[in-house]
Amino acid sequence: MENFTNSVLLPNDLPPVETEKFNRLDKKYLKISFFRILFFAIVIAGAFTAFLILAEEKPSTLILIIIISILALIIAYSILITVLGFPKKGYLLREKDLSYQKGLITYKLTSVPFNRIQHVEINQGILAKFLKLSSVKIYTAGGNASDLSIPGLPVEDAQKLKAFLSEKISEHE
Amino acid sequence: MNKIDLTKPTRQSVKGLVFIFVQSIRQALRMFWAFIAILVIQRNIFDNKFIIGIVLLVVLVLLITHSVFYYLNFFFYVKDGNFILKKGYLRKKIMTIPLDRIQSVNTKQNLVQQLLNVVTLEIDTAGTVGKELKIHALEKLFATELQDQIRSGKKKKMVAEPAGKHGLIEVPEEIILKLTPLDLLKIGISQNHLRTGLIIVAFGFQIFQQIQDMFKEKADEYSNEFVGFISNSNWALITFLIAFFLIISILFSLFRTTFKYFDFKLLKKEGTYRVESGLINKRNVVIPHNKVQELNWETGPIKKQFGIYNIVFKQAVSGQNRRQQLVDAPGCLSKHLELLKTDLFGEDQLSSTPKIYSNSYYFRRLWILYGWLPMILAAPFFYSEWLFYGGAFFWIIASAVYSYLILKKHYFRMDNDQIRISSGAISHEWKQMELYKIQSVEFRQTIFQKQRSLASLHLMNASGSMTIPYINESMAKEIYNYLLYHTEIAEKEWM
User: Fold this and answer.
1) pLDDT, tens digit (0-9, with 9 covering 90-100), for B84-111
2) How far apart are CA B294 and CA B420, in angstroms?
3) Closest alpha carbon within chain B to A12
4) What's the predicted TM-score (pTM) here?
5) Do B482 and A14 touch (CB under 8 A)?
6) What CATH code is assigned to B16-170?
7) Pick the CATH number of A89-171 from 3.40.50.2300, 3.40.190.10, 2.30.29.30, 3.20.20.80
8) Contact residues, B window 326-365, toward A, CB-based 8 Å cutoff
9) Is residue B285 within 8 Å of residue B275, measured between CB atoms?
């Protein structure tokens, strides 16, 4: 890297973040995603029924059909995105940084160098507890925007990852 | 005031008693205002003035006792490299901050404090700890001394140089920028009135529409002529409103500028800047050079005429006080800007690197977002009115011009160690940072971008994030890899 020039022409031999090597999330995580959609659907359906019962003027059948089909479309779309987007989600642990990728329509790849991690946390929701999954949250000094959360890890993997990262952090302090 | 011995527990200034007392009266008023209001309104409940007098006296005595106890139990000192603060008499509280964790030591002064010649001292810690420490009534001289001692104490610890060289020679503080009333006038005038004006106009429009609605109801009773008269006077009324609100917003900006930046001074001493300003609420903020995560500077059409820039020093955010961490210096001339840039980033290497612009596809996305999308969404509601087509045409043209301006100003320059990103539409803003201050990097690509091999990059540092939108995908990847590499080999403290 000695003769690294002063322009944006960057060296080609820098290690790239190889997206094909990413670890996928646990399949059980899909269940959590589906449950979220189900919960959303129930809330919407409930609100809609309540509106229909309470409304003084009943809307015409045509409008009803339009609204219901729009809602159905939204839910179908979320299911489709969840299923197709799942293989995209994954994390990659390299020697010096941690990366996470996701997104079918908008692809996002985030990397945090170990020497910028402030602390690591393991989170587990109720459903995740039932499925023996946890998520690992990585905090940096950059505030919410640069924090990284990796969901859908088997509890053991999450703990290992946390232990590994904690060790790396202490090396840099 | 002589040298302060920080190792001994010290109390606040005796005048602080008065301040604490005033504060506690304020607090009491805030807590019991509803109760007091009832007493005042329904005087007949307590006819007996004697009782009221006694109650008042008791409250007063209680407040004074509280103030005295609070004052007597408030100590601060330095021990084993920690700054320690003890306070409270019923519930005691001890706060400890390691000296090398102190991010900055700032002072503030409101009207009461100005009369008493005391200041509030704020000690801010870094990043995630997120707790800050306040001492409300310090003698001004004492505060400056303390500020200096903590600053130099830290420095000695960090540099670990033989004391003989550094310690004895007092480096005088040098004034970089001082704003005169004329400067304040310039700054006030060159604020973004469009934004302020639009908010006020939107507000005014609502009132206007309500008046119109009121008239419309009655209009049915009268002839069509009357309706004609109202809609003709619309234009006059709108013009009047716009002029009126523009003037108000200019006056508003002038007042705001004067209050905030009165007697503004930007000073420099060794590795730190100090900012002093304010009419009623005075502030005094210290910014060590190495704590600056990002330097932003901005100029607009009117500012350009005056040749002034608004400079913002962005420091690490510690959660709650996001606003406070932004220290700005308005009314800088380009020579001041150059000086600050040299201080913070060394000799300018970036200006010789090529400007890399966002892809022109960015224009299309902006145009769709600002122009076509709002128009298409509005169309179902207004398509029957002929005025809509004129308005829509104008809107599409205006948004195209706006998006074009954005595209023209979106570029970045980068070398091994630094990056400078330019953005803006009407105004023009630059952000510059040292690459090793990066906290994390994000690569974003929508499916539409993928088709054209484009991508956007987000660079996060401890004070926020920077965006490079719509650049070549392979270049984005290269930069991504380089930034990670550069940060991972960086040995320097980012804060």
Assistant:
1) 888 888 888 887 877 777 767 788 888 8
2) 10
3) B478
4) 0.77
5) yes
6) 2.30.29.30
7) 2.30.29.30
8) 349, 352-354, 356
9) yes
